[in-house]
Amino acid sequence: MVHSFTIYDILTRNAAFRGERLAVEAEGIYLDYSKNRLTDETLRLLLKLADAIEARADEIGRLESANAGKPVGAAIDEVPVVVDNLRFFAGAGRVMEGKAVNEYVAGHTSLIRREPVGVVASIAPWNYPYLTSVNSIVPGLMAGNAVLLKHSPQTPLCAERYAEAFAEAGLPEGVFQYLHLSQEDTLRVVAAPEVDFVAFTGSVAGGRAMERAAQGRFIGLALELGGKDPAVVLEDADLDRAARGVVFGAFFNAGQTCLSTERVFVVEAVHDAFVEEVVKAAAEWKLGDPFDAETKVGPMNNEPTARKMDAHVADALAKGATLVLGGSRESGRPTDLYYQPTVLADVSLDTLVNREETFGPVAPLFRFRDEAEAVAHNRASLRQWLPAEPLWLRQVHGTTVGEADSVGEVSLLDGAPRPADVFAETDLHLLAIERQAFLDLVSDRPELLQGVLAQVAGAARAIQASAREPAVSTAGFLRSAHDHLARLEPREGR
User: Fold this and answer.
1) Which residues lie closer than 8 Å to 268 by C-beta, 6 or more apart?
2) 269, 369 in Cβ contact below 8 A?
3) pLDDT for 13-34, tens place per residue?
4) In 3-state terms, what secondary structure has residue 119?
5) Does residue 449 contact residue 490 with C-beta atoms inside 8 Å?
6) Sign of CA dihedral 308, 310, 315, 321
């Protein structure tokens, strides 16, 4: 009962009706599946699914490369991450909370019980077709729901590979199904009363459309939307390392990543020298055939995305930016979607490349007098975006951009993430520190280790003093992190 509609269904009036019918059918299947399922059986089934996908790693990676234009090596390398996420969510389903809450009446207690919601609609994008979709499909199934997957028309075969792997793993018939639909018909399925939860990954405009379609139904919406992530390069940064990190963030997957480095804020004192380092680093990013092992940047996925890149670059140049590298589509390629990795310098703040998500291989550099000016501009931009923010500096400053901005996450260099401002309006995100990368960072700089220790200890004290709801557990986590870091032994100077 796994349903597949051809690409021609997208053009027919019957497509939405079929989607709505499938939602009704899935609701009935869910009721039977949820009533009879055992958690350990679902766990074993999902682990078999992980094995089936793992066994197809090469095939899946090559298919993703063909669908999305991603360099084949990068596509194949994603599959182990997908499999790891799948196994993680399968195991997490065994430890969902059901703890008692407050006592309101003498002799009575209350508890929280986790129940499936019903039918989950997973609407997935083309840029990471497996890595994004697994994060809603597997938790949905592990919690006892039926799942309808609507994948991007750019990566339709991803859904079919899922169906094959589920059949091999032994998932009951009909519990996972997929649809190929137009945007309009997808919204009709989201509005169908039989759909109880929607997980959507895509643009901000797409997220708003999901909200409108589900309006008044009071169902859960999980929206992972676009970003406009800035990298901040301060005057004491290791410019070579910072340039390599910025270029990776801007050009990986041809810039078609929600966490791409879309803006680069550089203090004036090092701006010109940093531009030179970026050009050197960018020279290593070869544009070419995604099936060529030497290729680091493949073609863009589709014409509308490439047209946006055209418009953003043209707008920046018209408003005074300097074209340092690239800047156009490359002729003589199999399609017109091969866009040269592009570097722009002295970009002004009134440009499209500053205000809108570009989603292409461009590194726009903005010149700022000092850290404070960069902070002020980034804070203003947070009205629309909640970015991740890489910081490039040698010493841990008394007050750095991370403390001043309410960002989703902050990373120090490329291997030592640290908490954002403890009083941020957004949730505090604590990222695990990669031990070896951190050791490499502090190997001959004990003063940097001491600076990080001081920041972690200070953050723990500040959170404790804030008396916010999660204060005690978060402060305890930070104290544990401090104790762990204090045990690290940097090597003697090289």
Assistant:
1) 367, 368, 369, 370
2) no
3) 344 445 566 666 666 676 666 6
4) strand
5) yes
6) positive
Residue 409 corresponds to which tokens in the numbers above?
Answer: 């996450």
434 classed as catalytic = no
How many angstroms from the chain centroid is the CA of residue 12?
33
Q: How far apart are CA 86 and CA 84, in angstroms?
A: 5
Task: Note the pLDDT tens digit of each residue in 40-75.
Answer: 788 889 999 999 999 999 999 999 999 889 999 999
- Cα gap 119→163, rounded to integer Å: 17
Q: What is the DSSP string of 206-254?
A: HHHHHHHHTTTS--EEEEE----EEEEE-TTS-HHHHHHHHHHHHHGGG
Distance CA 296, CA 253 (A): 8
CA atoms within 13 A on the CB side of 459: 29
**CA 341 remoteness from chain centre:** 21
| Catalytic option among 54, 160, 211, 224 | 224
* Set 25, 158, 258, 371: catalytic member: 258
C-alpha span between 329 and 249 (Å, rounded)? 20
Dist. CA 168–CA 2, nearest whole Å:
13
In the structure encoding, which two tokens stand for residue 39, read together?
């958690």
Concerning whether 158 is annotated as a catalytic residue, the answer is no
153, 10 contact by CB (below 8 A): yes
